Structures are given as C-alpha cells and as structure tokens.
Amino acid sequence: MRLLVTGGTGFLGRRLVAALGRTAAGTSVHALGRRECDLSESVAVVAALLGRVRPDAVIHLAGSLEPDAALCRRHNVEATRHLLGAVATECPGAMVVIAGSTAVYGRGGSEAEPLDESATCTPKGPYAESKWVCEQLAQEAASRGLRVVVARISNPVGPGMRPDLLAGSVARQVAAIERDEQSPVLDLGDTSTSRDFLHVDDVVSALWTLSQADVSGRVFNVASGAPTVVTKLIDLFLQASTRRDITLEAHPERASRSAIKEQWLSSARLRALGWAPRLSLQAAVEETLSAART
User: What percent of the residues of the chain are helix, what percent strand, and what percent coil, each to the nearest 5?
Assistant: First the structure.
C-alpha cells in the first residue's frame, strides 16, 4: 500500500509517519512537506505530485492554524480544493482522510448533550470557518464518487507542539524554569476552561483507522469524550516537573482562540469502527515535557 501524508513534516504528520514505520508493515509512506509541494499553488502542481507517488490513500494534514483569513483560505481551503481535484484525475480510487477540527461546531455541548457529528455547526473565526469549507469540499467530492472522509480532531497533546498552543506553551515554560531560564511562574491566559484533550498517538491511530475503513462521505469526531479542566492539565505538567516551586499566573482577560468554556464531544461513531483512546493524558504530558527539555 502506498500512503501519502500531506503535512508530513508537521506535529501530527511526523508522529503519524513514525508510528506507521513501526506498525504498518507493507505500507510505503510518502511524507509531504510544503517545500516539496505547495498544495495551495494549483491543481496541476498537485496532480504532478500524485502522478509520481500514485497513492492508494491520502491523509491530508497540511494546513494553517493561524487566525489569519488569507492564510486559512490559501493553506486550508485552496490546498484541499486542489488536492481533491488532483485525486479525481490521478488516483480516483484512493481513500482520502481530511483532517478537520471540532472547532467547526462553534460551541462546546454539555455533559447531558455532547456534540456528535449530526450537531449543527456554527464555526467562528477564520480557522474554524476554513475548516468548515474544507468539509463542504469533501462532501462535494464524495458526492462525485471520490472516497473521502473527514476527521474532526479535538485537542491532541504530544511532543513537538507549537508554543502558542496551551500544552506546548506550558511544556516550554516548565522546561525553561527547570533550566533557570525563567522565573518559576507560568504565564498563561484563561485556565478556567475545559477541553477534550487526547494523546497525539490516539489521534494517529484514529486517522489510520479511517484510512482503512469503507466510510466515504462520513464525518467522525476524534475525541476522548471526557473533557479535562485546563488547571488539571497544568497540574499534570507540574507533577512531572523536577521543580516544586512553580506557581501559576493566569490572565483570563487575554484573547484566546475560542471563547468556549466547556467542550463535550461524542466519539461513539468512531468507536463503532473499533477505535478507542488507549493512552493517558498523563503520558502525553510527560512525553511533551521530555521533548521540550531537549
């Protein structure tokens, strides 16, 4: 089997490629980075790449997290449009997994009514709106006969996270404090919210599961189903630290990526395919901090 991973040099992509190298015997993985091919350039450019690689499946992780409408339109929407167009001409039988986001819901649900894939989506902000457009492109492609599935990913935690994401910021600050490069105070924004955090390797497992299943045209939440208060996540980092004098300085007034206070998501549809989260948030925290130290 030949697998193309776009965004293969990014946070999720690197972890996916490494995992498949250990577990997916007989699978040839092509990790695509933007330097090799900018998917946002044109359908023809992407088609030339697919003509060379001839993938049996594509896991599309490339994109932008920036809160910039132009960047999101280019690297999320146009890149996805070009990829799907090129798949249609070069490898129409390939299974395509589009990495989406639970940000498209625009709200957090509740314990009594967690958000499942049938919930109404009201995306807010350039990133969430661009991911919603990508989902529409995927549905259109599926209606034309392409094998496309969308994975709405919640909040992966693991080594190599960006420093502007919560867990990445905490890991880097704790590592800096341990090296005496920062005073023993964590400088963070609003820590009163809760999110559905998931070990990055469980996300990787979900993406692989979807690439092997006959689920074209469907959408799947990739989530643990159990939200964690941000202060609990921070406590796990502090417990893993070699320092015991670290305090927290929270700034709730700072603008955040999302104003959602709680996040309740249902992963029942994905679990029905045999997937389940198997790794603890504590393990994800320990791995993330270990990587930040080095």
Answer: 40, 20, 40
Residue with structure tokens 């800096």?
176
Are 286 and 159 spatial neighbours (Cβ–Cβ below 8 Å)? Answer: no
What pLDDT, in 10s, does the model give residues 78-126? 999 999 999 999 999 999 999 999 999 999 999 999 999 999 999 999 9
Strand partners, 153: 101, 222
As a whole number of angstroms, the distance between CA 84 and CA 93 comes to 12
- List, in order of start, the domains of the chain with CATH numbers: 2-158+197-224+265-278 (3.40.50.720)
pTM of the predicted model over 0.90: yes
Token couple for 212:
């092997």
Identify which of 220, 224, 238, 211 has the alpha carbon closest to the alpha carbon of residue 278: 224
* Residues whose CB is less than 8 angstroms from the CB of residue 198 and which lie 6 or more positions away in sequence, other chains included: 153, 154, 155, 156, 157, 222, 223, 224, 277, 281, 284
Contact 134, 97 (CB under 8 A): no
